[in-house]
Amino acid sequence: MLKREYSRLHAELEPGRGFCTLRATGLKLSTACQNFGIDLSGGHRALIDARATAQLLKQVFDEDSQCEPARVENLTFPLNPRTLRRESCEAYRQAPLHRLIANSPYPTSDWKLLSYLDALDWVLDDLVVTEDEKLHLAQLAKEYSLSGRDVADLHHRYLASIIQAAWRDNVITEDEHALIKKVADLLDVNDFEIPRVTAKCSTDGAIKLGARVCFTGSATDSAGNKISRDDLEMFAAKMGLNPIKSVSKKGCDLVVAADPSTNSGKAKKARGFGIPIISIQDFLSEVRSESAKDK
């Protein structure tokens, strides 16, 4: 992939010989960082992942490894010392799939299969598979001598690992069900049983006046602007709702989450008690809608 990008600039990338932390640990980056006590807050962003990988490399590097640095030749563009960070140009939201499988182990120890599954993680991160990404996966399979049957088996095992991750709290939410089905479609896996929804993530009607509402997660509005917890609770109070700090069986009517499929402590409690969970956007939309009706 990198070679193709550099070729578009009429430059040539010589990748050298690196040290693969995935092969050394047999773990995806998020799991390896957790095991080695490395901070990966905001992972799946290039700069953060690179820094975390550098820290991981210090702990797992084999001195006997024969490594060579990468080189780029014939690059005529001037060096730009500016680092463009994603958070400086858009509000970053962790992808639902990444959050779900972040700490799930890969279902194999074979480094070739690990490499393919790691590529799948990145390709499926936004739940869209482009033609270039399909080509990249096909080239990777060819490079590792994976047959069509091998790839199909990997896709089945990958989907099974996602389902296992979703079942960690013994609950399948509507969002998780939709996510699993979407991934199955993208992987062209149509002979796999998708687990049914066991807990609804939305209310069955309007939010009632005086409802006790608990907020969880870092909230943003539809434009990506951050909303503080204090502002959310103040807004809820103005709309005639009762904001509360914690979830309990008899003291909470609704949980409002930045991500309704989150595994936060509050969300887990809510699912266990059968308390509905909705997104920040749905909450704001529904409350404003009810407020407009009353005018």
From TrEMBL:
This is DNA polymerase III subunit epsilon. Signal peptide: none annotated. GO terms for molecular function: nucleic acid binding. SUPFAM superfamilies: BRCT domain (SSF52113), Ribonuclease H-like (SSF53098), TerB-like (SSF158682). It comes from the Bacteria. Residues 205-290 form the BRCT domain. It comes from Thalassoglobus neptunius. SMART domains: BRCT.
